[in-house]
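Give me the fold.
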Amino acid sequence: MKNVTKVQATSPMLSGILCAAVWLAIGAAVLSLLLRFGSMDEASLPLYSLIVHGAAALAGGFVSGKRSGQRGWYYGGILGLAYGILILLTGFLAANAGIGVRTLTMLAVAAAAGALGGMFGVNARRS
């Protein structure tokens, strides 16, 4: 097994999007379990889904900033915008969801969380 090649995403944006997708999947699974087996009702689901999207963009921005090594807020912010647009596009194509105040709020939260994560990621690399 010494000759097995290691696959590594070298692009900061690609690795950040992949990390954000993993965190989104984990958050969606936890929300589904809480909705099914917990005492959470469906009325509070939009707030918790916004928190999950923010956490996913934060983690993706962190990875993107750490990979880039410079301008973490820039790479994280762009990653947050790309993540938000991908989520909006998926929602539009899968559920015919339109653009409203909630979707624009999610886009703004994802961009801000991604930029913050990128700032943390750049500073984590130097230590």
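The radius of gyration is 16 Å.
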